[in-house]
Design goal:
single chain, 114 residues, alpha+beta, four-stranded antiparallel sheet, two-stranded antiparallel sheet, 36% strand
Length: 114
């Protein structure tokens, strides 16, 4: 079964703690070597984001950001293919992003026969 690990980091660098570059390299290597990694990417800084909203009449509004008050920022994701939720949760707990004020949200990937 496929799961998406949504990796959230603390919104301010001062809040982040206990997560070094080498930790990420080791985690990415472990995902690849175990054969569970389907795909994954880090996201650029939040200041590069653009938000699109479409109103009821079909009119489109495009703004820089999001500018919501939040304590966490989506920093990237991994899609893994593992036997069950327990294994997905184990990988989420190993993720450096789950430490230092961050979190990893685990969601099953919905697959449709189209």
């Amino acid at each position: 079964m496929k799961y998406m690990l949504l990796i959230y980091s603390a919104a301010t660098p001062e809040a982040a703690d206990g997560c070094e570059y080498e930790d990420w390299v080791a985690y990415d290597k472990a995902l690849k070597e175990s054969g569970v990694l389907v795909s994954g990417h880090a996201l650029k800084d939040l200041t590069t984001a653009t938000t699109v909203r479409v109103g009821p009449g079909g009119d489109r509004t495009v703004t820089d950001g999001p500018f919501a008050e939040t304590r966490e920022v989506l920093g990237g994701y991994d899609v893994i293919d593992v036997p069950d939720l327990d294994v997905a949760l184990d990988w989420a707990a190993r993720c450096p992003g789950s430490r230092g004020g961050g979190s990893v949200v685990v969601r099953p990937v919905a697959e449709f026969d189209i």
